[in-house]
Each structure stands twice: as structure tokens, then as C-alpha cells.
Amino acid sequence: MGNVLIGVNMEFVRHEDKSFEWGVEEAARLGYDYVEPMVHWGRELLSEAGYFHSVSMLDDPYRIRRVCEKAGVGVSGLSAHCPLCKPEISVEYLKQAIRFAVECGAPVVNTDEGPKPAWTTEEEDHVLMRYVLTEAAAVAEPRGILIGLEMHQQYSKTVAGLDRILALVDSPAIGVNFDTGNSYLGGENPVDWIGHVADRLIHLHAKDISIEQSDAERGKVTGTPVGCACGEGVIDWPRVIEACRACPRDIVFSVECGTIDQAARSVTYLKGLLG
Known about the structure:
Blueprint: E1 4-9, H1 20-30, E2 34-36, E3 39-40, H2 45-48, E4 55-56, H3 62-71, E5 74-75, E6 78-83, H4 87-104, E7 108-112, H5 122-143, E8 146-149, H6 159-166, E9 174-179, H7 180-185, H8 190-196, E10 201-206, H9 211-217, H10 237-245, E11 251-255, H11 260-274
Helix pairs in contact: 1-3, 4-5, 8-10
């Protein structure tokens, strides 16, 4: 039986025009026990100037480790989403993210299949994804890093579609980063799906969906960047917690919402359910 722990994806400060360090301190102030940093390749103006929370993988990974240790929070995983159907991007991106994760203290690297090329067939896309995941798993396995596949694009939006991707590569390093909001918007039952992948569940994006968004988009989209505050939408959180407690490992709920106020209400609600 696993424990449920509460963290937050750094997207909650996306619109604050502040640095990664500021966002980690804010997460700790709100009462979160973990954060999920977002990483990127290269250099860009906003994060370099301290106006955005993303961290370049050209930085010292100990930047993340030191900031989180000082704030008293753990690192649940890295948000390293890249298009698995495009190996010219994703092979080296994921390999670098995995090596970066070792030093910054993140046990999981999260990704999804991403937008597909316009000219490839479904069968070709799965060959391309198999290539990327094989290369990434070869780097992750000896380092003890897990790769979390999220339902967030054309193939993984269904139970069968994610199963097919998970079956592409036989590796203990590849698991599921479950997104409650994306799974719901895709038309599936999140609680049933968690039960289906319980043995492969390694991380969870705690994303609630407002009634308005549910009415407008369910069955029409493959996911959404962030949700509303947990407990204020359609997701059945008591049942999600129950399903995750039946998993063989501890699971961090990384809250995905769009504002500090939503993050504050989410942590209060979820910790209240956990007692």
C-alpha cells in the first residue's frame, strides 16, 4: 500500500513573472511538501532574467537541489515534456533530462508523446516512439531514474492508446505519470484508469476540471495545461486517493493549477482529505 504525498507543479506561478527560486519559496509557504520543476534546453530571456520559473538544463542541477533543500521541500519529478514522435528532438532532450534529474534529486522525468509530425502514419509514429523510449530507458535504468508517460496527446488519450505506448519498450524505468484532468477530458474514468495502471503508476498530476470546462471540452480535447483548484471541479478526489493508496509505491500528487490562490486552496483541500 502506497502513501499519498502532496506537491505542486511550478506552473502555478507561471503568470507571476518571477524566478524559479521565488516559486519554490512560495510553494513552501503554502504548505507543499514537494515541487515539480520544469526544465528546458538552451537559454531564453524570461527565465534568465528571473521572470519565469523554468530552469535551463545548461544550469548546474545543484541549483534546484540547493533551493529546494533550503525551502524544506522535495523534488517529486521534472517536467520534461517533449514530442516522442520526433526523435530528432526527444532522444537527446530526455537523455539530458535524466542525467540532470540524478544531480538535482528528482526521481522521475515526466513526458508525453507530444504533437506528431504532419506526414507520419500511426504505425510510423509508434516506431519512432519506440526508438526514443529505448534510448531514454537505456540511460534511465542504470541511474535509477523513472520515466513517467502522461496521457496528453493523440494516442495516449485513451486507456488502450497508453497501453500500446507502454508496451513498446520492456523496461522497469518506464511508468505512468497519471493526469487526472487530461484523462477525464479525454472521456475516460480517471479512477478506473488509475486502477488499471496501478502497478506502473509513479507520479500523478493532480488536475481538477471546472464544470464549465467539462461541459465545453470533454471528449473534444486531449488535455489541458492546468486545471482549477482541486476540490472545486468534477474530479472525485476521495476515490482518486483511495485508488492511489492501493498502489505498491508512494505517489506524489503534483497539483497542476494556474494561480497561487488556486494552489493555496488545493493544498488545503487535499491535505484535509488525507487527514
